[in-house]
Fold each of these.
Amino acid sequence: MTTYADRPWLARYDEGVPADVEPEFPSALAMWRATAKAIPERPFLHYFHTTRTVGEVDADSDALAAGLVALGLAPGDRVAVYLQNVPQWAVVMLGVWKAGGIVVPVNPMLRERELQVILADSGASVLVALESLHPVALQVQPSTAVRTLVTTSELDPLGDDDVPGLLAGSSRQRPATALDLQDLIAQHEGDPPPAVPEPGPDDVAFFTYTSGTTGPPKGATNTHRNVVFNAMTYRDWIHLGPDDVILGVAPLFHITGLIGHLAVAALTGAPVVLGFRFDAGTVLELIERWHATFVVGAIPVYIALMEHPDAATRDLSSLTKVYSGGAPVAPAVVDAFERRVGPYIHNAYGLTETTSPSHVGPFGARAPVDPTSGALSVGVPVSNTVVRVVDDEGRDLPVGEVGEIVIAGPQVVPGYWNKPEETAHALPEGELRTGDVGFMDADGWFYLVDRKKDQINAGGYKIWPREVEDVLYGHPAVREAAVVGVPDEYRGETVKAVVSLKAGTELDPDELIAFARERMAAYKYPRIVEVVDELPKTVSGKILRRELR
Ligand code: AMP
């Protein structure tokens, strides 16, 4: 068992971090209310060139809460949020909590089939979608419990101001079959707060969906305790305060954006800079404009930023607290970023089920590189978190030995929504089996060297081969399919499909790529297709994905 005594870094690198941390607030909402009371006039959201203050966001979310309750939302009901990185995200999140509800983030890249699964599983009764996603939402709605469709536009927060280049193609649509978010807020401005109980630490704040090795996606139930605890982790381990400015490049539907942008902003009062979707040139401009100081995102973001021609001419000197998480980081990229842009990229590790980080490189400390594997350390376990490295029988392994990483701590979710079996399997006695394989060195730094799971990690986006294979099997020429991750310079890994064909059929790989592309989110479809006579199999006939890799 790894104990505090085994972790000399605690004193060495970060004496300011208390070893025992109890959440300071009973809920993420209480955390926000404290900020709203203390600094209502401060900026909270910068979106392109516009700004909303803490007080404005608080008032809008009050009105939205009243509106949601008037529409019939009851405590514990789920509201799905199908948006890009727009200011409305924060308003909806706070409004849902104020109405006693649970937020279900949905990746706006998901297509009909994928959206349907999440809506049906979560039982969401309200869906807040971008206007441009309204057709998808409308098509899926009849097979779900969604009673109310609310839409909003990425142009709304801009008012009558200039439209930034990135949104030049957007137009206002106001579909007649949905309520408009702005109208809903306006109608309930000044209403008394809904008479619902305040959320407590064990109430669920989010269902965050993660795919499974087999079967449909599972909703991890991040509680308010989980959220408050890891908002504090970001604040304390990265030394964030109200004078920081958070560059919101991680998607807000993912746990990194939810906690590393929105929750830590709600806790500290540091504003978040949003720019709809990631575009390197826009992000460089926004760093300069708003003097962003802190960023957490996946490594392709940093590659794209440093390779953009504007990186040499923009003033990026405010950006000093830089973190990467979600995908492996090559030490060479850290060096190149430091040389070309300035700041050192710290590594952090976590999962959806750990409500963002379980491990962090303490701010100011340079992570060691394992001489044998060349892996950059993912950090040290954060406060109050116990991490074990175990063998196949679940027995503790000594320092330096490679095994599965299992995590217990206040950021670990209690389980998956309505999935007792999966919960028992992944979280036996509340301890998370990560499926990641690695080791701890004598100083307490952790390294990942492999994965137990077949998951593909394309620059932080997780893809389960099974799901892609299921779609490929829908093509009339495909007899057998296996999907694997192959190295890719920018995304780290990309998706490759190896297929065999039915007798008498022919298949152009590009046709299969186009077939898959139509049926799944853009990050999932295979970029490479190879047609073979036979796929490698075990004696029992199981396809050997590992061999293909
Ligand atoms: P997600 O649930 O999308 O946050 O994905 C969690 C998975 O991302 C982990 O199980 C790891 O496989 C991977 N991951 C997260 N952080 C890192 C990191 N710093 N280095 C390498 N892989 C990471």
Note: The domain at 456-548 is CATH 3.30.300.30 (GMP Synthetase; Chain A, domain 3).
Amino acid sequence: MKKAKKKVVSIVAVVLCAAVVIGLVSYDYIKSSNEVNKTYIAMGTVISSSISGKDAEKATAEIEEAINGLETACLSWRAEESDVWRINLNAGKDVSVSRETAAWIGRALDISADSDGAFDITVGKLTQLWNIGSGKEKLPDKETIKVLLEDVGYKKVMVSNTSVKIDSFQAIDLGAIGKGIACDVIRDILKEYDVKDAVISVGGSVLIFGNKASVGIANPDNSSQYMATVEVDNQSISTSGDYERFFEAEGKKYHHILDPESGYPAVTDLRSVTVICDSGLDCDALSTACFILGYRESLELLEKYEAQAVFVFDNHTVSVTDGLKNDFKLTSNDYTVE
Ligand code: ADP
Ligand code: MG
């Protein structure tokens, strides 16, 4: 086996020897004869896929098509005619959606309830107001935030098997779970094919299928490097942090994870939270929720979802949940494990 090439992408995917780095830049991978590697842009992020096995080629192609369809048909609030776009356009009315979209939104509501509303997809109007990551950010005025906050509330969303209704003035945003959902969709496709193992990264979420892989956790101070690695065995892993999308105004930093109680970026002593569990959607939602909740408040939630996590604090200490301790390795001298 030899190192095939070095690429610059937003996440790293490597089986054996090297690491998949969440939110990272440099990317090494190892090419074996039946391994298909592909990097492309979809869902507004970089997708890196490395699949080996007899059907690797076919699975790679089907996954790319499915991911593009997922965004345009279901998840994007920007894509005209997607399920989410229609739900928002018809706020106050029952909207027919695919069974999958209804189930994903239902699951998101469960996680909202279990996180006491820290995770809440009805922050849509606020995320549009802040527009963080757009390059056109302006500090919103307090009054507007206050007004929009009145309509935030997951309890007002009604879901059946095939329909979703939000309250008249609400808008939903599935940005915190889209990449995790993609990991679940990819897993279902891989199961249909003769595939040995796969590592697929969708922005800050990675699916490890088949073999174990070592995944790097980005250093929040320099996200092109990693500060630790975790062994992931046939599960998904997601990171939420304050360093990926943010802007600065009046000498302060504003990141993209909003506290649904204040309408402002969550105030926390955390730089990032990485969550590992069976479901990509759960990992993605939980990493966002835990970032807002903070370390102590997160532990019960993680237990309920049988998830493990790595918390990186702003004082350069790191906490790792018990079930992950044997699979976690610090690789940077700038951090210490609590
Ligand atoms: P990323 O999308 O960078 O991987 P996350 O998974 O943490 O990061 O999702 C952050 C995105 O989720 C935001 O850009 C926004 O669209 C949405 N969001 C922000 N705050 C919340 C929240 N409290 N609950 C649910 N979604 C949120
Ligand atoms: Mg998330």
Note: Residues 176, 238, 240, 284-285, 287-288 surround magnesium ion (ligand 2) (CB under 6 Å).
Amino acid sequence: MNKREIKTAKLTVDGDTYQLPIVVGTEGEMAIDISTLRSRTGLITLDPGYANTGSCKSSITYMDGENGILRYRGIPIEQLAEHSTFRETAYLLINGELPTKQQLDQFSARLNDHSLIHEDMRYFFQNFPRLAHPMGILSSMVNALRAFYPEIPERSEEEEINITFSRLISKVRTMAAISYRISRGHKVVYPRHDLSYCANFLNMMFDTPVKPYQIDEDIVAALNVFWILHADHEQNCSTAAVRLVGSAKVNLYAAISAGICALWGPLHGGANQAVIEMLQHIYENGGDPVPFIKKAKDKNDPFRLMGFGHRVYKTYDPRVKIMKKMCIKTLKKLNIKDPLVDVAERLEETALKDPYFIDHHLYPNVDFYSGIFLRAIGIPIKMFTVMFAIGRLPGWISQWKESVDDPQWKLHRPRQVYIGKTKRDYIPIEQRKE
Ligand code: SDX
């Protein structure tokens, strides 16, 4: 029977049979709709980590983990990386269509208008401990944006939301650069109206009065690709956090701040920092990947190959091929010989021949080469995940927008199976046994 003709699933419990509707996606994915399961059967499902559970229907990003496919609004990531810019891809994700020239110019003008931050916010940056991790600073400061930019009643809800989108995409980039400059005790560099989104970021990071930053269009183009590759990835951990927090109808800044916190984790976006630390450690211990692959396979050893494995991709992450090519091209352009590239390639080659990695479908993911690129363009390792966050903003925003516009919107509130103590009485303290 053709998949699309399957309309229901049968569930038999204790002799009773229930028909549950099947939902079929535009790419043929199928799901059992269990939204009436508890009311009809008294049963819930249990799925730790939600590996088998869809939280929503979405039109934004399509991933095929078995075949290594990634498309934003139907357009393959390979085409966007080759032809688009980060601004244009952000517009596509949020609005659903590629912009006309006029729409893109208006979007760019709005990003420029909202690129500065409230001057009083600088005092926050100046008072964080110098060694504070930039992801903790970023999530705090994004949450603080609501205090500095409260809703204006006279504005329509749609205008308020569009301005908030532009503020986030533009100001988060500015805040990341300001945070870096202040952490180094350097003079803050303001965004310029005559520079593009990516060129502005690089200039705000690296321009100094004594050594003006030379905008290199190849590096600007590479940074566009880096952020395009990170722009969205359907229901990953941080996007799920944004949707869950957003489901309580909290303001978007707070929901994005929650996404930044989730992304910080080394199992998620924090892996790009962990990969470089792992490669550096392998390099400092002779560069032979074999002992580390052995450790990664040892169930008694918590060590994992960072930048390897993925919940959805069971083959090459399509972003890796683009990232690796862009990384090697950038190193060549900057005439940088990074020994970690050889370590990474040896590690990749050795792991992909190992039965454990083959059997577990463990391949490099987006974080495996991204840190080598970031290091080459001068981004400090503690800012790697901030770079991921800036890229993921359009994805988080588009996913939040889709969830609040969803006619089936519901507060996210999972159930559980209780396995604790059954009913027992309170015991006064004098009767409790030591
Ligand atoms: C990102 O979801 C997204 O889309 C995320 C992301 C995005 O763009 O938003 O793509 C970005 O977060 C990429 C992932 C970055 N994280 C890492 O590189 C950290 C290292 N990778 C893993 O910890 C792991 O692969 C995860 C967390 C990414 C995915 O893990 P799963 O799907 O929860 O699988 P699992 O942890 O249950 O592992 C399944 C098996 C286990 O072995 P068994 O007990 O079944 O024998 O695979 C093994 C694991 O031990 N395994 C690894 C491994 N990853 C999984 N073994 C060694 N090294 C690894 N990296």
Note: The CA atoms of residues 186 and 208 lie 8 Å apart.
Amino acid sequence: MQAPSVGGVRLPKGGGETIRLPRGSSLTDFAEKINANPASLVQVLFHLGEMITATASVSDEILELLGQEMNYNIQVVSPEEEDRALLESFDIDFGDPGDEDALAARPPVVTIMGHVDHGKTRLLDTIRKTNVREGEAGGITQHIGAYQVETEVDGNEREITFIDTPGHEAFTAMRARGAKATDIAVIVVAADDGVMPQTVESINHAQAADLPIVVAVNKIDVEGANPQKVRQQLTEYNLVAEEYGGETMFVDISARQGTNIEQLLEAIVLTADASLDLRANPDMDAQGVTIEGHLDRGRGPVATVLVQRGTLRVGDSVVAGDASGRVRRMIDELGNDVEEALPSRPVQVIGLTSVPGAGDTFLVVDEDRVARQIADRRRARERNAELASRRKRVSLEDLDAALKETNTLNLIIKGDNSGTVEALEDALMKLDVGEDVELRVIHRGVGGITEGDINLAIADNVIVMGFNVRAEGKATELANREGVEIRYYSVIYQAIEEIEQALKGMLKPEYEEVELGRAEVREVFKSSKFGTIAGCLVMGGEIRRNARARLMRDSTVIHENLPVSSLRRFKDDVVEVREGYECGLTLGSYSDIKVGDVIETFEMREKPRA
Ligand code: GDP
């Protein structure tokens, strides 16, 4: 059988085999897998309307298109799958709980969610303050992103870990990356306000993640508070209180006055015991999830991690996302140095060489070298994927769409901690500027703006945003040289406002027609030099040279959009002729002009955006 050809190029033809390629692969990577010459693939793509070099990363769509063309079944491997394979190549099985016999009970990890102003922050504060761990003076003083408290349930001391960033944004961001940090959701509902949109959203998020829910009915101290109404409203969302025969524990609290906080903690423990089997193996290399990270002036990168399995110890070699290093110090929420952290324990880790993102997994490996290699590979992969996503696919079918110019504003967001970066990205993505423009965050990260960031930005329309961070080293110089725009912010809403303005500026201008004048044709002359000349009387407004004109006859439009190409009063060329005066004009080479016709002139003016 003859090999298929596109535009005369002979294709290496497959027999429908499946080829697995990591996202962001290049044509050379592809060619290697099928034993072909990369140049032939470049040519094939060229004939499909793509100009791509052999070593550049290409998008999923192009890989798949090429696969179809050549009869290969291309599977683009997701970053998660790829990461699993990467870890496997180091003999690491992330998420493997280890021996059933080695499992020991661990505390539940709780996220507090609910509508804005219903008291999430206050509740986290109150729990933090009232529950001082035994033997500790001073209580929890540090905000490290999570903390652990103790409570007595049925005569036993039990621990609970709270994620200390309220709201479902952080929770969703982590879940989006496949990180399951939370075991139980506490939904806070203010008794004086009842179920609100974000209450419902929080419930949806929690239920989608299969989390048992405890409801804290807050602000019962407020006059007019109606905790029973909250119970009744929530039945609609399948949260039926125990006292009504359901399975959900409701606790009436006042975060402000510290009422029933112990009862809430007890309800959390009881709910965990009833619906979850929370056990983890403490005798293995630690694995878990990063809750937040930031760059500390004195201490360098600082990350709060939640240990999910194993025990994390000072001196361990760790890799968290694309950051690696060795645990130099661990600090808990009381500000104390700790030597080891068991499952469900959050600790601040110092000793990483860069800042991991919220939701990044972390794990302990045998040697620094392995940690470094994994981090390097992840960083390279991320960069490839970013490069690939920047390239737009232009195939023959899509040519039309591609020709219609798309307006995209690309952003790189750098900030002082991962929570802010995520919050900013989230808020920006929610900006509504219509369908004509698109906002894309092509890279985000914690720390100063680096030369790497600028290099990534050297393409059209990339704005680098620095939130509480500055450009480092030669980055400013490079940005100036390459014309990359860097904007600095320290207030989120200001950042959002400016980007919104920028997006509006990119909207293609809208024009509206403004009528300038009307003239009636009184005589028509034919001139061998000028063509058809209309002798007119200006009836209203003014007639200007170079204005657009419309020719009307008996109130019907005969021709739209003719140019007033010459305009004269007697023998003189003029720029404009006002109402009540006579003039001679030509409408380009248009000749079908009759006495009695009306010429309307207008211009298109840009309409200001709302
Ligand atoms: P968040 O947006 O859910 O984090 O809400 P906050 O914790 O910031 O609380 C919003 C407002 O409600 C603040 O002014 C709190 O002081 C107040 N608040 C929180 N809990 C209570 C409470 O139990 N009783 C009363 N009266 N006010 C409360």
Note: Residues 390-405 have pLDDT under 50 and may be disordered.
